[in-house]
Amino acid sequence: MDISGLTIKSFHNALQRKEFSAREATDFYFKRISEDDSVRPFISTLEIQARERADAVDKMLADGDETGPLAGVPMAIKDNILIENTPVTAGSQILKNYFAGYNATVIEKLKKENCVFLGKTNLDEFAMGSSTENSSFHITKNPHDLKRVPGGSSGGSAAAVAGGFSLAALGSDTGGSIRQPASFCGVVGLKPTYGAVSRFGLIALASSLDQIGTLSKTVEDSAIVFDAIKGSDEHDATSDKNEYGATAFFDDDSAKKLTIGVPKEYFSGGMEKETEAEINNALHVFKKNGFTVKKISLPHTKHALSCYYIIMPAEASANLARFDGVRYERNQEAESLPEIYKKTRGSGFGNEPKRRILLGTFVLSSGYYDAFYAKAQKARQLIADDFKRAFAPADYGVDVIFTPTSPTRAFKIGEKTEDPVSMYLSDIFTVPVNLVGLPGLSIPVKKYVVGSGELPVGFQLIGKRFHEKDILNLGMWYEREVGE
């Protein structure tokens, strides 16, 4: 039986029927990981720990204990999320010898659900990138075309799910780092509302933008994982005490009552021809089925990317100051403290972190703070006001906003490495969501089969704050309509 083709629900049902054991499923995935070295989604695997957890699930089942939908589910975890006593590198040489001292809150929650953690997935260094080419370990490849990137920074997690190396995965999203690779790899990617999921135990890039989320085969799978990891956390001051109901359910009547907004600024040119055609096909599915679709305007969207690439490097330069050669076990021969800093940061960080640290330090420096950073924060508020008007009943009154996820399909490895600005433009449709803290969901336009020769395209659904249920319900409706 090819377990890699199952969804979380079908895996759970098969496990309950004893068609296979959790240990057999875990062994299946590790065999697949070891035998297929073409995609390389993982930085490290956790075989001993995973098999112990799988055995514990099998004992629960043998004893007749009740288990939830995630029990025994083999998952991949982005390597900037801490799992106690295991390596965590954030894709950087500066952390290559570092072991996590505690579990991230999301890991604690998934452990309570009896998930099995297969390993830590590859990423752009410190989540800085849109292709996973910036990892200091190796390049992960897109399972649909090994000459192309899987997207980034959560490219390893997206490739693991798309390539059948894990059933689902966790990633992090600062400006599109879950949704863009989900689009490139033909899987579902959920970036929850800022504050909906604890960031405790996530290695920070930009603290006002970062959010842990999910990558999965179906929208329902993302809802199941989201239900397990959402909620407030006393260890994270930015987590919100908003009380959610369950989101992993489908309500056809509620879905069809949602009004969909389509911002003209996202369809004003610049998209790859093939991508635009697929996005329009997806939008037509909603229109032909009687959904209310409104044209709306988000006029300050044009400033989002510029705003993001001032705020994000500024926060990154502060967050990455902690990696100084003193606290994270990277020892260098040096005769003074400044020399330790210089040698550690000079050799430990790759080009992209250095670029962003320098940019961030510059925009925060005396004489430039007001000229750049302060203005970017004002522009951020204008972007947030646009979204408020879109959702306000007295204005456009939409429930969900429909956009492309990325302006292109997956590009070739090496195609954009010498042009950082071109790489940054991959996130042009996703960064506004992070700037204003809204939930975003990337869904494949149709089912893409690895080996078919088709390059996936995803569309994005943006919801109101803490209204993940709207975008997830609408996404489940779409999957049922076009066929999972």
From TrEMBL:
It is an enzyme of class 6 (ligase). The keyword Lipid metabolism does not apply. It catalyses: L-glutamyl-tRNA(Gln) + L-glutamine + ATP + H2O = L-glutaminyl-tRNA(Gln) + L-glutamate + ADP + phosphate + H(+). The keyword Ligase applies. GO terms for cellular component: glutamyl-tRNA(Gln) amidotransferase complex. One of its GO terms (biological process) is translation. It holds the Pfam family Amidase. Residues 24-472 form the Amidase domain. Its EC number is 6.3.5.7. GO terms for molecular function: ATP binding; glutaminyl-tRNA synthase (glutamine-hydrolyzing) activity. Keywords: ATP-binding, Ligase, Nucleotide-binding, Protein biosynthesis. The active site is at 78 (charge relay system), 153 (charge relay system), 177 (acyl-ester intermediate). Heterotrimer of A, B and C subunits. Allows the formation of correctly charged Gln-tRNA(Gln) through the transamidation of misacylated Glu-tRNA(Gln) in organisms which lack glutaminyl-tRNA synthetase. The reaction takes place in the presence of glutamine and ATP through an activated gamma-phospho-Glu-tRNA(Gln). Belongs to the amidase family. GatA subfamily. This is Glutamyl-tRNA(Gln) amidotransferase subunit A. It comes from Candidatus Jorgensenbacteria bacterium RIFCSPHIGHO2_02_FULL_45_20. The lineage of its organism: Bacteria, Candidatus Joergenseniibacteriota. The gene is gatA.
